[in-house]
UniProtKB/TrEMBL annotation:
Pfam families: AIRC (PF00731). It comes from the Bacteria. This is PurE domain-containing protein. It comes from Microlunatus sagamiharensis. InterPro entries: P2CMN_synthase_LarB (IPR039476), PurE_dom (IPR000031). GO terms for biological process: 'de novo' IMP biosynthetic process. Residues 97-229 form the PurE domain. NCBIfam families: LarB (NF033503). GO terms for molecular function: hydrolase activity.
């Protein structure tokens, strides 16, 4: 594919920018910063600065990564809770259905906010609701109207990971479940929540990897995307 990858100056041996991702898939390029040095992330950001048409999310960015990106892209936005640096800073105008993101507890907020920021920068209207876990079911039941207005729902939960199945039993929308690594010893770093979600009784639950807020937000944004415009005379 012409132009699908490139080695701009300074990137050889570090990365290949996916310059066609927006045209090919309709969604921004993403750079996973964890495991990369600040110098490597900075080099990638400088290459992005040379191609302002390439929308980019820098995910799992620590403070040093964010500083390196902002040095190259001073107008980018940095969300330290979501650990995302977004370029351009402002998300596009919202289209499609609502992506609702639920954090079972405040400890799940970094993963939930990663999903929320991702969905917003992929062009969906999104709302974030925090601390509505199963220890107090009245909190989720009090928001049924909001839940049922969503086109896709992301649920981030650790410990027993029960909230996605509860939510899926209340709504028509698909639920994207994100197990988080929150919990005491037998939570096994999110494995307990992952297994609970994979065994969800309610249908309509998909599950992403532990702590993968970006993947959950991306999938929800795809589910909630607006319908393709029909050609004149095309059957509905």
């Amino acid at each position: 594919m012409s132009g699908s990858a490139a080695h701009p100056e300074g990137l050889a041996g570090i990365a290949e920018l996916d310059l066609d991702r927006q045209d090919r898939r309709g969604y921004a390029e993403a750079v996973y910063c964890a495991g990369k040095t600040a110098e490597q992330v900075g080099a990638i950001a400088r290459a992005v600065a040379a191609r302002p048409d390439v929308k980019t999310l820098f995910t799992r960015a620590g403070d040093d990564h964010a500083s390196a990106v902002l040095e190259a892209l001073p107008d980018a936005s940095w969300d330290p809770v979501a650990r995302i640096v977004a370029w351009p800073a402002e998300p596009p105008a919202s289209t499609g259905g609502l992506v609702l993101v639920l954090a079972a507890g405040t400890s799940d907020l970094p993963v939930a906010r990663e999903a929320y920021v991702t969905a917003r920068h992929l062009g969906r209207p999104a709302e974030l609701v925090v601390d509505v876990g199963v220890a107090g079911l009245h909190r989720i039941l009090a928001r049924l109207d909001l839940l049922r207005s969503a086109r896709a729902i992301v649920v981030a939960a650790g410990m027993d990971g029960a909230l996605p199945s509860v939510v899926a039993g209340l709504v028509r929308a698909p639920v994207v479940a994100v197990p988080t690594s929150v919990g005491y010893g037998a939570a096994f770093g999110g494995v307990a929540a992952l297994l609970t979600m994979l065994n969800a009784c309610a249908p309509g639950v998909s599950v992403v990897n532990i702590d993968n807020g970006y993947g959950a937000g991306h999938l929800a944004a795809q589910i909630a995307e607006p319908p393709e415009p029909q050609e004149p005379g095309e059957p509905a």
